[in-house]
Amino acid sequence: MPGARRVLDENWTGSSTVPSRGLYPHQWSWDSAFIAIGSRHLSVRRAQRELETLLTAQWDDGRVPHIVYNPAVPPGPYFPGPDFWCPSPRGIGAATSGIVQPPVHALACLLVHRADPRASVRSGFLARTYPRLAAWHRYLTDRRDLGGGGLVSVVHPWEPGMDNSPCWDAPLARVEPVPPETFHRADLDHGAAADRPTDLDYGRYVRLAADYRDGGYADRPGTLSFVVEDPGVNALLIASEHALAEIARDVGADPRPHRARAARLTAALLDRLWDPAAGLFLCRDVVGGGLIPELSAAGLLPLLVPELPRATVGALLRTAAGEHFGLGTSVRLVPSYDLLGHAFDPSRYWRGPAWFNVNWLLERGLRLQGAVDEADALRAAALEVAAATGFSEYVDPYTEEARGTRDFSWTAALALDLAVGSSR
Question: Which of 338, 398, 404 is nearest to 166 (CA)?
């Protein structure tokens, strides 16, 4: 796709790719993983550098930060900037944020390796990245099991990637927002207010980030006001543990610990987040207690898990095609939130629009689970909509109208991957 190549070339900085030149002028964690998956079809070396630039900003406790700041960008274009997150015990030279994003990186590294295995072996790509990926997964499973049930918790709505999901409304209601006059929302300089989180939500985001920073980024149960087990984050960790097992085998390490961890996570996911009545995995509010009764596309992402019981897979497929998500019936792309939900908004950030990374993941999950016809239809729709909307950040799921920014890097990258069709 020539248009996708243009977007990725224009957003490439020489060491990483910005999500968009205006709205997101730095390097984002899971964005770079998705970008590398697509850019491997243009240049394997560039895809490797994308991931290694991110991983070299890893903290000494193993966490991979959600933003790596470009020192050439002045502080005004994005808030919160690097000064907001300091001081931090990161033990590295790069300026970063202090929170994380979903762990899709091992899967990305494996797919980049598969694009040219001989060149990858010659360059030592997997040998360099494996220890960092293993440390990243250890941080998540050892430090972020804040609920004590074997799953990873997120401590900020920005961490699961679906920043403004209605799933966070109840946990966020406990958070006292900082006054809006105490910060400047640079995102509104680049996007319509109707598409973005409200000032109230943003004030709560800032409060949570500041409290986490002021607590030294310590992951201590009982000290954090927002702690949620998210099915999408844990499903991606399981998929990446399986990828890490393959990487371990290729570099001469033992793959068995990764397979065992994936099995334990899968059991915990089913035990703690599966809701048979909803036919969906739900988020768990660790602080408030209990499952959150909001239906999010994150609850469909466990289709990526290889050992999911067939009955669970069947229920997820029925839910995806049913009235709440409408895949292949009322919509062609899966919305980020329940079409019938009380908080559904087809335009506002993560409260209903369809996102291309979520649909790429679901296409992969559908194919893994043998739903080939559904995967083929989703792939065709994603390719058509991505090109028609100028590789937009997200779209109205009903009208497929572009929302957010245009020339968005992961949209271009994942469209390129779907067009090539070799990500299996």
Answer: 338
* Locus of tokens 């058509």: 384
Mean pLDDT for back-to-back runs of 10 residues, the chain (424 residues): 94 96 91 98 97 97 96 82 77 86 98 97 97 98 98 98 96 93 69 75 94 95 95 98 98 98 98 98 97 98 97 98 98 98 95 98 98 98 98 98 95 97 54
Rounded to whole angstroms, how far apart are CA atoms 37 and 413? Answer: 7
Contacts 24+ apart (CB under 8 A), 135-138: 135/58, 135/62, 136/55, 136/58, 136/62, 136/63, 136/64, 136/103, 136/105, 136/106, 137/103, 137/106, 137/237, 137/240, 137/241, 137/244, 137/258, 137/261, 138/62
What does the alpha-carbon distance between residue 130 and residue 230 come to, in Å, rounded to a whole number? 25
Whole-model pTM: value is 0.96
CB 232 within 8 A of CB 298: yes
- Determine how many CB atoms are found less than 10 A away from the CB of residue 93: 8
SS (H, E, C) the chain: CHHHHHHHHHHECCCCECCECCCECCEEHHHHHHHHHHHCCCCHHHHHHHHHHHHCCCCCCCCCCCEECCCCCCCCCCCCCHHHHCCCCCCCCCCECCCCCCCCHHHHHHHHHHHCHHHHHHHCHHHHHHHHHHHHHHHHHHHCCCCCCCCCEECCCCCCCCCCCHHHHHHHCCCCCCCHHHCCCHHHHCCCHHHCCCHHHHHHHHHHHHHHHHCCCCCCCCCCCCCEECHHHHHHHHHHHHHHHHHHHHHCCCCHHHHHHHHHHHHHHHHHHEECCCCEECCEECCCCCECCCCEHHHHHHHHCCCCCHHHHHHHHHHHHCCCCCECCCECCCCCECCCCCCCCCCCCCCCCEEHHHHHHHHHHHHHCCCHHHHHHHHHHHHHHHHHCCCCCEECCCCCCEECCCCCHHHHHHHHHHHHCCCC
Active site residues per annotation? 163, 393
| Token pair belonging to 24 | 């997101």
Radius of gyration of the chain (CA): 20
Q: Is 223 left (phi over 0), alpha (psi -120 to 50) or beta?
A: alpha
Place of tokens 């207690």: 289
